[in-house]
Amino acid sequence: MKLSVPMKPSLLALSVFSVLSAPTLAQQEEQTANDDKKKAEDIEQIQVTGRSVSYANNATAEEMKLQQTSMTSALAVVDNLPGVLINEGDPFGSDEWSTSISMRGFSIDLSQQQIGMTVDGIANGNSNYGGGTKANRFIDTENLQGVDVSQGTSDISSRSHEALGGTLDFRTIDPGFEEKAVVSATLGENSAQKIYARYETGEMARDTYGWVSFSTQENTDWMDEVATNTRDHFAGKLITRLGKVDLEGYVTYDDAREYTYQRIYSLEQFERNDEWDGLIPNWTGVPYQDQNWRKGWVTHRENMFGYLKAQTMISNVTLKGNVYYHHNEGRGDWLPPYVADVIDDGAGNPHSELESGNTVQGGSSLGNIYFVDSNGQSLQPRANCNSSVQGAGPEMDQNCYAEGAIPVSSQRHTNYEKDRYGLNADFIWDTTIADMPNTLRGGFWYEDYSREEWRTWHKLLNSATSNRIDNTPYWTQYRREFPVDTLMAYVENELDAGFAKFRVGAKKFDVDVAKNDLFDSDNDLDVDSSSDVLFSAGFVAPVPAVRGLEVFGGYAENFAAIKDAVLERDDTDLSVVEPERADNIDLGLRYSSPGFNASLTYYDITFDNRITFVSVEDVDGIDYLESAAGSYRNDGGVESNGIEASLDYQLNDNWGVYVSYTKNDSTYSDKDFAGNTVVGSAEDMAAVSFDYKNEGFFAGFSTKYVGERYIDQANTQSVDSYVTSDLYLGTAVYNVGNAIDTMELRFTINNVFDERYLGTVADGAAWIGAPRVAALNAKFTF
């Protein structure tokens, strides 16, 4: 029997509270050992403080990780930071199709990649849905040390050509000094479960430490609980010292199968049913309906990523370098309700597309085949037949054909594979000029990137009964590769004049993007997407009257190269498409003292040359063939300004409070929608979190408010504001005995009050936000 959503948290709560009360006496007996452990943990915790630099930046705190379940994607931990909005349609982040990240009017979503993302400072290789990879695929949540967020201006050395609106750097944990093992198990709603294990080697050789980890997890979709998302993840890290050289290596492998949610195309649809996206749980045998079968909307992804870093000092010069490799492969599936007619078999002859072993390479569709007779000949519906299939014409309705008509349909696979090789090198030279400390730094980033994409169409063996396919495709629609060469070089000088630190720098990107059509070389394209010299400058000055208070300001010219996806459309005239560019200004105050940290930033951004796809014709429903004509072009830009504020205050030894607020005004500057608010950007956001810890017990409650957002550039429709809250309760017991060093139990509820809202917003559509979900985690350290 399926329990109601409110019932499940209650049952989990009763079970966890009964366990939480038991260890208290044992904790009192081991108080001294507990204090030592707690002190060590407190030292390791990441504080919500900004680095003393000339631009806005924030870092996640340990409490922000506790607010999320151990199964939740690593992206979710930054959601309470000022200026940042994370939306995921799945409660555990299992669906990238419905995931978006927004900062200062810039976004990462299905059509836009305007925010940089790095892993331990290394480029992630684009964040787009088809063939891209976000940081959560490189890092298990338990292996996440923290996230450094640079809103807007960001560091000049950041390795990304998507960083128009800032950078998120996801940092992995370092190996510990002592040998130990960590085992964790998580159970939650939607049949969620995760097993995680990590082994810390301790000092396995002189000055050499490492860890390896493995996890496996799964959860069903929350709407129908019929599609099971899975993820297997392996990672390892090693640090060592050879002579005067520090080495660090990291490798990770991630294998995920994720079922996607469909977007809502009208507010009326959401009002009719705020718990359903229109996908259906069961196979019906009617192709028009089965194109929306939930288990048919699936993506398979594999990622392998690794790097080796080296660092040393020669006199007063620090030298850093690393090499990295990333292999990505995956496939996205859909169920077109027809077989594409790609072979001219002649009138009245059977369709050879229906015979196994015939694969057409390239070309275009001559039409669509919906129903055939027993000989494989295409049938036509009766004249003037009114379709009984809601939303479909007579060609989709079996009742409009003679008895014995056989439905035919396809499974469409978009396959992609990517390899990236990269090299980074940096130097930092500390010296003096006129007795003033001076730091000169510089470096470069080189990457060789190649993405291959091909699309295959497979006939369903029997559309009336199941989605089983003929493994031999009847059509390979296209096959193309996209080589991209990137070279970025930068230099920056910082002078400490005593009363202030001043920096000035410049960097330049040389990016060559090409398309090689493996079926038709006439469609080959090559575009130079290099930047001009990009200047930056800034200052940081302490305020003498208030110890711990500093004022900062910065200016930076940011750049985003033309994406390889722009070259996918043969109709695009690349001679008139220019790389995107943004000029960022930050001005703010930052205060830091033991137990109290705060920041206030004003920003102003001018974003030019925004690249958008403009269609010149409409296609009803999903355009499976991508037949709608259109092209990419530079379509004006965006003007953004606002304030970001945060406060982190330790009220006493047990209680802490964190508050953030964002006031953002992002408007289009192009002629068609000048002055209109940018799609998906909220004018107001606020978050508050209370956290408690005492003698092995810890708890917290956080709430975030997101203001209304528009879902179209014309600003005719807006989604309502919403408020979501998260709760966590836990206890830790030390020196348990029987080889168990530490036992920790944590109970988490996300979206405590089950707020119904629209989360990720795309132009003209939105996804339903994740509902309430509860999970219980048990972690043991040996």
Shape: globular
Average pLDDT confidence is: 90
Structural class based on helices, strands and sheet pairing: mainly beta
Q: What is the helix fraction of residues, given as a range?
A: under 10%
Proportion of residues in extended strands: over 45%
Overall radius of gyration = 28 Å
- The total beta strand count reads 42
Distance between the termini: 38 Å
The largest sheet is:
22 strands, antiparallel, barrel
**Oligomeric status:** single chain
Number of helices: 6
Uncertain residue ranges:
1-48
Give me some keywords for this one.
single chain, 782 residues, mainly beta, 22-stranded antiparallel barrel, 5-stranded mixed beta sheet, 6 helices, 42 strands
Give an account of the 3D structure.
This protein is mainly beta. The chain is 6% helix and 51% strand. It has 6 helices and 42 strands. The strands form 8 sheets. The protein has a 22-stranded antiparallel β-barrel. A 5-stranded mixed β-sheet has the order 1-7-8-5-6, with no helix packed on it. It has a 3-stranded antiparallel β-sheet with strand order 2-3-4, with no helix packed on it. Strand 3 (100-103) and strand 4 (106-108) form a beta hairpin. The longest helix is centred in the first third of the chain and has 14 residues, at 7-20. Mean pLDDT is 90; it is low at 1-48.
